[in-house]
Design brief:
3-stranded antiparallel beta sheet, binds zinc ion, 41% helix, 175 residues, single chain
Length: 175
Amino acid sequence: MSKIPYVERAYGGMGLTGECAYLWTLFLMNEADMEEDFVAYDKWKHMAETLQPSEGKPTPAAVHYKFLEDAISKYTKKDYVYPGSDPQEETDDEEHMSDNEHGYCPNCNKDLDGTLIWDSFFDMYGDVDKADESASMYSATREKGKWGLKIGIYDMERDMTTHWKCPDCAHEWPR
Ligand SMILES: [Zn+2]
């Protein structure tokens, strides 16, 4: 698959800029060609010719074609990819999210990761070696191991934490 073009919105998000629509049409024409879908290829080719800038016929400022929008949403998944944002970068963000150690609140989606455990000990002692030693008791290192922000609901009879509680919205859920 070729690189997915950017999506640039015009007029408050209702339409696409003419240039953007043209790039997408070319992209979809290429895709149809590779998939040997000749009906689709003809459709996109015709549209590309309509949108193609030429002398005395500037690219339209904004266009809104339902079938183009449908095709774009298949490739972008999200409704919007803002101009200049690279779909590749969003994947990186998702990978970054997987650094999460304590999960998210099932109700309000609060990130339940707190600060680094190592940082707390370093603040406490002001000493790298002591911080290393104390953090290691929590299996934490200088880069990994965060305090969890969720509150454990402790059951005295069962002598165990049975539920978690969100510090923000007070939602409780079973452990
Ligand atoms: Zn919550």
